[in-house]
# Entry
Amino acid sequence: MLTIQHKETANNGVFEAWQGETQVGKMTYQRPQPEQMMIDHTLVFEGFEGQGIARQLVLAAVDLARANGRKIVPICSYAHKFLTRTEEYKDVLTKI
# Structure
């Protein structure tokens, strides 16, 4: 079972993906403004690709953004592709 953990400071944050006690991926973001999240890197560790882990990391960011009135700037190519392919996430997207 996949578990997503979130850690945040005033200026940045990270979502970590875990399967049991093994970290299998992470996604980092910067917060240049309190209401903005710039997703800059999404990484799924070797051997865990193709399991939807990156998707779950991005969706965790979407949930956080919606719950806290934030907008996402998807700098990371995966996050950008995922968030812009449908209208479903339009409410949380913004540009720099």
